[in-house]
Each structure stands twice: as C-alpha cells, then as structure tokens.
Design a protein that fits this description.
173 residues; single chain; seven-stranded antiparallel beta sheet; 3 helices
Length: 173
C-alpha cells in the first residue's frame, strides 16, 4: 500500500495511531488476465486483533485489461450492487450482513476494499468509509503504477454517499 495510506485505517476508524497491525502479501503476475502485480493487505486491531479492513490492489498491462477484470469480478458477486459516482473511475459498492465491499477500476489498477461490520466514527456507513479510503489511496497508487493513465486524465475526486445494498463476495480479487 502507498505510504500515505498506511495510517488510513486508523484515521478513518478514529483509532489511536499504532493500534492497527497490517499483514501484506505480494501476489504474482497472472498473464492470462494481463495482471502484472497484486498486493493484498489485511488490517487487524484491538486486543483480539479482529479484522478491520482488507485491501487488494492489482495492476494490469493497461486500462482495458483492468476494466475487463473488474467487470469479471463484479459479475462474480451475487446479489444487488450499486454503482458509485467516483470521478473517472468505475466503482461498485456491495453490502451484505457482516461486511461491505468497494470494487474500483481506475486507469490500469483495480482496488477492492472490504470492511467488516464494526462501529465507525461519527455514525458513518461502511460504504462511505470505503469510498473515503479509496479516494485517499487511488491518487497515490496511480502516481506510482507504471502504466497508470486515467481514462479522463484526472484522479477520482467526486463522490456521492453510497446507499446500502446486499450481495455476497466471491470474486477473484
């Protein structure tokens, strides 16, 4: 994850700095879908180190390859989904009983964030927290990803609050 995003789980949840642990897994390229790299981060916190956030970031050879895999991942999910206005990016938010997920395709990058059900500061919804986190991460990710060229030439900056929907999360991220 970009350096600017390392403290985002703490900030967005109103937790003290240093109270969140992270585990990063570096994936391998997957030429069949034109994926050049993958990073998965799991964040845990509290005395029981309960799950706080899962972030998966994949880079592709170009924007069409990223958009195609994003569509495959979204289609693999069952239940209702809601598109989220997200500037020049494509984004879908899905919620089900115990978690919410945001799937984003931006330039040659796909970002999936999964937030388990938990108390959030200010009574914010899980979807709003996920959108906020993605808006903090994507400009930094796009700046360091080799082939990153936004479709519309600008990073995603405008969003509307997301409505609750239901679905299951079974895609390959």
């Amino acid at each position: 994850m970009p350096a600017s995003s390392r403290r985002a789980p703490e900030a967005l949840r109103g937790l003290p700095l240093g109270s969140v642990a992270g585990r990063t897994i570096l994936g391998v390229p997957q030429p069949a879908v034109s994926r050049t790299e993958r990073v998965s981060c799991d964040y845990t916190g509290g005395p029981a180190r309960r799950p706080l956030l899962r972030a998966n970031l994949s880079a592709y050879v170009d924007a069409p390859a990223a958009a195609n895999q994003w569509r495959v991942n979204v289609a693999a999910e069952s239940g209702e989904r809601r598109e989220v206005p997200f500037g020049s990016a494509q984004a879908v938010v899905m919620e089900r009983g115990g978690e919410a997920a945001l799937l984003v395709a931006y330039a040659n990058v796909n970002l999936t964030l999964v937030l388990p059900d938990q108390p959030l500061p200010g009574g914010r919804s899980r979807a709003d927290v996920l959108v906020d986190l993605a808006l903090r991460m994507l400009p930094a990710v796009a700046a360091v990803t080799p082939a990153a060229t936004p479709r519309a030439g600008t990073p995603p900056t405008t969003v509307q609050p997301a409505a609750a929907v239901s679905g299951t999360f079974s895609g390959t991220y």
